[in-house]
Design goal:
single chain, 358 residues, alpha+beta, five-stranded mixed sheet
């Protein structure tokens, strides 16, 4: 977690919730409760809006205050900003209830069912809590089932961190860009900007300043048309011996353009694509073997039958399918253990690797 510095959250539990996967992909099977204790029991990491909904170390809270200020000024989802403008009394009443005790949206005294189409399908209470989260008044701990429990951010982030002065937006961006560079090693500008989802134009100026200060090194990467930047402390490994499946939201592939530049791997998650139009499947995980993404697998954890189901499996162009299938068996063994079912089975017929896996 220290090396990644950020974990993206996602609510889809098709295999296992995505925040648990980066640790597995790097270390193999571990106890997911370890992450929950770090983040939600001991509050060593905290949930915030960064690379979408994310977990970051509580020590990083001052570096993200600029985004809370932008949200207060309306640079967030219009539905939230509109509620804050039109009914500030209700928002304050919701905050008062959180001051009394941590709670879920359903535990509000007056959750107020939605009023009008522009609110979507959420209660006004849920929207008010989301607004308070975006502006940094409240934080989130997760309960069983990934349910959000809201508490004052002051009770999640320690006082000695909250009392630190906020860096300027430019200084915060510079520090976050350096942290992204440290996690990525070598990266193009869009990769650095995407890591913490910084504003693109100001971030580009900050990168040029970091180069001028000697904190980032301009380099060329064979096959890249974009300028690349190297962190001074980045080390080139003698070899990479990976054999693992990646979450769709793993930093290796979460910025799709970077995945194409590094691996010639074109990737789109098809959760929101109608079933008849999906090419690979609902929840498809890239397969990393050695230093290359060589395949992808459509997977689902069936907890009723206690098995990991392979619905589709595909090798990438230019790979040896037999080699890919051999490695994939090992990766599926590990993943089945990690998600707590212990075995996997072929339950579909989509993809060239299915016969070998079956």
């Amino acid at each position: 977690m220290g090396r990644l510095q950020l974990l993206q959250l996602d609510s889809v539990p098709a295999v296992i919730r995505t925040q648990y996967m980066p640790g597995f992909s790097r270390l193999g099977p571990y106890d997911p409760d370890l992450l929950d204790r770090i983040a939600y029991t001991h509050d060593e990491w905290f949930e915030t809006w960064c690379h979408e909904a994310s977990l970051l170390p509580v020590e990083d809270e001052p570096l993200l205050r600029w985004s809370k200020d932008r949200a207060r000024n309306g640079e967030t989802w219009e539905g939230l900003a509109r509620l804050a403008r039109e009914d500030p009394g209700y928002v304050e009443a919701v905050l008062d209830q959180v001051r009394d005790r941590p709670l879920t949206a359903g535990e509000l005294h007056d959750p107020r069912p939605r009023e009008g189409q522009w609110w979507g399908d959420r209660s006004l209470g849920s929207l008010a809590l989301d607004w308070l989260f975006r502006i940094g008044e409240v934080g989130i701990r997760r309960k069983p089932g990934f349910a959000k429990e809201f508490d004052l951010l002051d009770r999640i982030v320690p006082a000695h961190i909250r009392s630190q002065p906020a860096p300027s937006e430019d200084d915060a961006h510079r520090e976050l860009l350096m942290r992204a560079a440290a996690s990525l090693g070598v990266a193009a500008l869009p990769d650095l900007v995407d890591y913490h989802r910084l504003p693109k134009r100001p971030a580009k100026e900050r990168v040029l300043e970091l180069v001028a200060d000697g904190k980032l090194i301009e380099v060329e990467v064979q096959g890249w048309r974009r300028q690349a930047y190297l962190h001074p402390d980045a080390l080139e490994p003698r070899s990479v011996d990976a054999c693992t499946l990646l979450s769709p939201f793993d930093p290796v592939v979460w910025h799709r353009e970077r995945g194409e530049r590094l691996f010639d791997f074109e990737y789109k998650i098809e959760i929101y694509t109608p079933k008849a139009k999906r090419k690979y499947g609902y929840y498809v995980m890239p397969f990393l073997l050695g230093d290359d993404v060589v395949g992808r697998v459509d997977l689902k954890t069936d907890r009723v039958d206690g098995v990991l189901r392979v619905l589709g499996a595909f090798s990438e162009a230019g790979t040896d399918p037999s080699v890919v299938a051999d490695g994939l068996r090992r990766a599926l063994d590990d993943l089945a253990v990690f998600v707590g079912v212990g075995s996997w089975t072929v339950s579909g017929d989509n993809g060239d690797l299915i016969p070998a896996l079956r």
